[in-house]
# Entry
Amino acid sequence: MNLSLCILLKGVRDMMLNPILEKDLKTKMRGWRTPVLLSIYLLFLGGVLFLFFLANNQIFNYSGYSVFNPRIAVNAYNVIAIFQFSLLMLIVPAITATAISGERERQTLDLMLCSDISTWSIIIGKLIVSIAHIMLLVIASLPIMGTVFLFGGITFGEIILMILFYVITALMVASLGIFISTVFRKNVTAIIATYICLGILALGPVIAFVIWGIFYERQYNGEVTYSMITAFLFPSPGFGFSSFFAGTQSSVLGSALSEIQRLAEKETNILRYFKPWMINGLFNIIFSGILISLSAWKLNPVKKRKRNAKVNSKLEVAEKN
Amino acid sequence: MLKITNLVKRYGKFTAVDNLCLEIGEGQIFGFVGANGAGKTTTMKIVAGLLQPTSGEVLIDGIDISTKPRTVKRKIGYMPDFFGVYDDLKVDEYMDFYAGIYGIPYRERKAITDELLELVDLSHKRDFYVDSLSRGMKQRLCLARSLIHNPRLLILDEPASGLDPRARIEMKGILKELRNMNKTILISSHILSELSEMCTSIGIISQGKMVASGTVEEIMEKLSHTSRIKIKVTDRMEDAVRLLQEQPSIGRIDINGNAIEASFKGDEKVLSEILKRLVMQGIPVVSFTDTGERLESVFMHLTEGSEGYDA
# Structure
């Protein structure tokens, strides 16, 4: 019984384990870069949280408050969530934009492409490695995120949902990085191009919306609704993130994020069932699918050519003559 | 085994491979000779499925690479002229990775790796990081890698380039071993003599065109009729060159100071005829010699470019 189970499991492992995933995980995890990156990431995140509490406590001390204000916990959660989201946006391109261009620069890509492995497997392998890397950072940061539970206000479910959103966003950014990496030959160019594309994707819709908003306001003196915002901002990761912003905050970013939430609640049509994270998440998944397919197609050196029946028959006729 | 018909590869206006035709039978070792940039690597990359040809057909075992690339790639082992290694992998991990790439099950990998490392004499280095190996060793490791899925056709692009004499001899030994294993091999080099010992047939490529091909004996025969002559004149260099250009037996002409070097095809009778004409034209010839350079140098001139050569 045990033996057959072992054989079965081994078979599944043989089938499922992508060789690129296996190799990259092995070499990445045993090198010094991963632990160093992880340590810096956690130190950064922990440091921000620590500074936040320190700063707030002092302010409250000066004002004469002696009791702990639970709002600080919610604000701390907001700070950490935004901070982690931004950090991921910065780290994912750096990890993924060299996935293919790195192989090309190292002159190992041809060795892979001349084998019978499909370009899909190469891309998926590279993608899963990046996602695994990001998951490691996110999961390792859970204890820091968990500090907000000490004060209440945020539920466990919300955190899990947020992590799910992080992973979906990371998937999109990783696919973008890998796609750009198949386009550009140099690592540096690919990384820069990925940051630029990500910047356009994140801020472009916001800028377009603001410009449209000014025009709309002047012409019709109308009121902006959730559907209008969604129509413009659905590709922006920031729009999806607004779902995870807790309460209100006085900062520009905070008030913008909570305004989206307020409008979403006010929406009367069917769109009110779709929260920003769902809409943006869906976009991310579809966009990732497109980018992955494009990358696999772009990477394939010899595009499959179906023999043209017409040409064949013409050739046959010519041969007969 | 391998049949290439009318293969063309263009990069914009530049034609890298020009209407190339080639056929290699099962178990043959075909030496692909040509200067750098002649189109050897491009042809090999197309055969290995790494480049899309502009036109033409590549058939391996009768299957077109552009219609069934994955089936064809399983039959091919390719070793590029320049390649990189993953510096953070050990030798056996490197082999294991490529075994995985070719979908070889885990349980079979160790035996295959052992056998191939034995073949290329790297068994003692299996726990070393790939990066720490010498160039010759890396080259041998790459050869072992290209054999991991037991391909029937091997494409080896300059496997001996950049190697010291000892490593070259070792590489030759391995290739002989492969020949005994009845592999069909397409091997390239820019040195003719290097290939002549081990190949069954040879093709000489220049500017994307196959200028000569056949068995080693045929090629040698062809080249042995060709030689270089050196003519020194004290004056009227232009007239001498013009006169030489008119001769059908004279090929490419190079001017070196007051000496003219030209490739020549024909026997001594034709040679004396040329000298006679030069003297009769009143050109002050001070020396007229057959340089004795054959094979290598003539071949080099043959492949250098067909501008001055009318073979």
